Amino acid sequence: QSALTQPASVSGSPGQSITISCTGTSSDVGGYNYVSWYQQHPGKAPKLMIYEVSNRPSGVSNRFSGSKSGNTASLTISGLQAEDEADYYCSSYTSSSTRVFGTGTKVTVL
Amino acid sequence: QVQLQESGPGLVKPSGTLSLTCAVSGGSISSSNWWSWVRQPPGKGLEWIGEIYHSGSTNYNPSLKSRVTISVDKSKNQFSLKLSSVTAADTAVYYCAREEVSSSPYFDYWGQGTLVTVSS
Question: The Ig-like domain covers which part of the protein (chain A) (predicted)?
Fold first, then answer.
């Protein structure tokens, strides 16, 4: 299975909004509303930010939102803050009952 | 609060077998969750290795399936990973994670990760 495609890097100034895309196929992203997003700071374990395309776990800021159109899911961070600087990964369930992660996106706060 | 802790050798010789265990606390491994292994080579992205249910049912990444075995020990509330015929490409931080599947599958709890280096 191939990794989902994400941009290598996205940057923005404090207060701005940025969007990270996650492109797969009809066998994963496009076939199910089972996309989740994870934030990873250097040297730390990933942290769940979004599940089931657009749901936020308790404790995650409402500045984080998710959506999906066709084979592409997106994570939007609004009101960008310095603490949002991290790597972000999408993940999807697949038609083979496996899981696949995205290639990862480094978010830089300018 | 569920906690996961990986343990095992930090150094494995090429062609050998990598063995790791994930101890689960604050919850039962016999709950309605799947239990996964995920790895991350230094400076690279996340790769899903596979998962197990307390019944023993498993799913594996097709690219690793021939070398991977994941097992569960309900009496010790832990699950394990074995990866055979390792090479330098298997050097990575290995994470164990709980997968919530009541509505849709996602990883809600993660271990801190353990670095395994493959080298002679």
Answer: 1-101
C-beta atoms of B46 and A46 within 8 A = yes
Q: Do A52 and B106 touch (CB under 8 A)?
A: yes
Please answer yes or no on whether B48 and A91 come within 8 Å at the CB atom.
yes
pLDDT band for position B102 (50/70/90)? confident
CB A70, CB A31: distance < 8 Å:
no
Question: Cα separation of A31 and A22, whole Å?
Answer: 14
pLDDT tens, position by position, B3-37: 999 999 999 999 999 999 999 999 999 988 999 99
Q: A99 and A92 in contact (C-beta within 8 Å)? A: yes
Q: Where are the domains of chain A?
A: 9-109
CATH architecture, range A9-109: Sandwich (2.60)
